[in-house]
Amino acid sequence: MGSVGEIVVIGAGPAGLMAAETAAAAGRRVTLYEAMPPPGRKFLMAGRGGLNLTHSEPFERFLSRYGDAAGHLAPMLEAFPPDALRAWAAALGIETFVGSSGRVFPVGLKASPLLRAWLTRLARAGVQLQTRRRWDGFAPDGAHRLLAPDGTVVPVSAAATVLALGGASWARLGADGTWSTALAALGVPLAPFRPANCGFAIAWPDWFVERHAGTPLKNIALSVGAVRVRGEAVIAGYGLEGGAVYALGAAPHQALAEAGAATFQLDFKPDLTAAELASRLDRPRRGASLTGFLRKAANLPPVAAALLRATKPDAAGAGPAALARALKDLPLVATATAPIDRAISTAGGVRWDALGPDLQLRARPGVFIAGEMLDWEAPTGGYLLQACYATGQWAGAAAARHVGRGG
Ligand SMILES: Cc1cc2nc3c(=O)[nH]c(=O)nc-3n(C[C@H](O)[C@H](O)[C@H](O)COP(=O)(O)OP(=O)(O)OC[C@H]3O[C@@H](n4cnc5c(N)ncnc54)[C@H](O)[C@@H]3O)c2cc1C
Question: What digits encode the pLDDT tens for the residues 277-303?
């Protein structure tokens, strides 16, 4: 026999935690189920990069980052905008600051103090957390099938449910996208998962990978077609990843889809013109290695010489003008995206036409969807977490109202 909860939230990432908090604040009894032993594992991983919670740019611009999904997300982001997220964190004792790029971070640049304070607040609000319970779809009577680690099925019924099971990347942190099978079986329209904010595969020579995998490329600019961004990228064994790559957004994906390859033009010295760089390089090498010469003449790191050798060996021995041109416009040709499991986030998931305006599944009334399960994508910059919070709050409030109306 299954237990009957008022509101069940499944998935204890930021979207599920926010849904649970909102439903509990509306006076509902909430049980939160999570497959992994500790909640919020991807959130903690995001903390390793400083935990970019949201962004401080004007709201209209902020909203535009969600592309095609902006219209659907607008009411939710208006109800829980970036300032509300900052105030919410402050109420948990976590002050935030705006970085030079406009991104918003917690002062300590860590996720764990925030998550700890959040879980304490949820426990005080009466939210029951049960970990090691994996959602395995619905039983014929409509109850949730939750699997215990030994494979036992624990049936759970609820007056309303929020599913917040995440996207389909970094499966080892919990979000493996297997929920799509159960929802597809119900006839829920789903968009296929695609990596978003992901790296790209580049066929580096073995010697280059051995010496330079993991090396950051700092203060660079990257362009694909007409789209150019400044920032940092990282050499990965499989290719190229990092903030500047993700910030290029759809451009490399489009190039791949249209031409089967995406060329990243790398500019090692975005603050200098090619002529300025050439004049710095216009001095005798006096037998110095290319690495030593580039360091002395232009303050470039060893990876610059290595990348020249790996991708444009002719330029390595060229005169100052050609060398400067190569360093300002080095083509790195990608032939595929990185595996989806390495993506910061995934596009695709539950389509908007599967849902009512309250995020309720048309195919299964009383079940609401939040977070990265929904079909939206956005660049990095705090937009991902902000939308997870906002949709979590929206779904949690809607589930509470659903119970209030008697289902
Ligand atoms: C390395 C990295 C860095 C990132 N940095 C940032 C950043 O700085 N800023 C930003 O905005 N975003 C960042 N993100 C993205 C952000 O972390 C995610 O978009 C966000 O965590 C998604 O929230 P969610 O609640 O929808 O899903 P998740 O956080 O993935 O949570 C889903 C939860 O559901 C559980 N679950 C899954 N399947 C089941 C099941 N069948 N049964 C029970 N439980 C299940 C999972 O274990 C998990 O706890 C980063 C992501 C990564 C990987």
Answer: 999 999 998 889 999 999 999 999 999
Residues of the chain short of pLDDT 70, as ranges, are: 1-5
Q: What is the pLDDT of residue 404?
A: 86
How far apart CA 18 and CA 389 sit, in angstroms, is: 6
Question: Using CA atoms in the order 282, 286, 289, 292, what is the torsion angle rounded to 10 degrees?
Answer: -70
Query: Which tokens go with 128?
Result: 């029951």
Which stretches within 260-298 are classed as H helix? 274-281, 290-298
What distance in angstroms lies between residue 322's CA and the mean position of ligand 1's atoms? Answer: 46
Q: Is 349 in the pocket of ligand 1 (CB under 6 A)?
A: no
Please write the tens of the pLDDT for every residue from 29-52.
Answer: 999 999 999 999 999 999 988 999
Residues 160, 400: Cα–Cα separation, whole Å: 8
> Is 164's C-beta closer than 6 angstroms to any atom of ligand 1?
yes
Q: Which residues, including other chains, have CB under 8 Å from residue 353's CB and lie 6 or more apart?
A: 189
Q: How far does the centroid of ligand 1 lie from the alpha carbon of residue 312, in Å?
A: 39
